[in-house]
Amino acid sequence: MKSLFESELEASAGAKPLAPALKLLLVPVLALVLALGFATVGFAATVASKPAPKPNPTATLGSLKSVGLAGQVLAATAAVDVMDGQTVTVSGKGYSTKVGIYVTYCVLPTAGQRPDLCGPFDITGASNSSIWISSNPPIYAKPLVKPFGKGGTFKVKLALTKMIGDQDCTRVVCAITTRADHTLGADRSADVFIPVRFKP
User: Fold this and answer.
1) What is the pLDDT of residue 59?
2) 8-12: long-range contacts (C-beta < 8 A, 24 or more apart)?
3) What is this structure's pTM?
């Protein structure tokens, strides 16, 4: 008999270090920009001319790799029997360097929907659940993002928690995720998912 997790899954189918003073100045600016960006993504999605494709069908429970719609590959060092708060290494290759992304940890969205319920962005890196990667970021963000490596590659560390806000990832399906950043919020081409299951 399939678990609730499996049933829901089938249904849903370097920058240089900143000076401390500069970090303090950029924290409120970045927070405001990201808040505005995420708030306006919903509107952008409504005016997008192309219908959103369904999430990648290769995003299956137990897999440590997932292949995106454009052939990009997302990989993680762990995704099953994960401990609450465990840090995993997440890497990618073949991503378009023209599309900035968030490497993040989200509740797996329903088919065709934007990953929306995601972990926070922490500029200090102390508790990041969302990392911004872009080779062509807005000018205000250049000191704050990580650029893609050769061939659209990246490697980051991501903390996985049982809770994303008020969402319990032992009851809903959560996933290591890449998605287009807020400058291209309606773009679903960068959506790739690796579902996560926590150790009982």
Assistant:
1) 63
2) 8/108, 8/172, 8/173, 9/59, 9/60, 9/61, 9/108, 9/173, 9/195, 11/110, 12/55, 12/108, 12/109, 12/110, 12/111, 12/173
3) 0.70
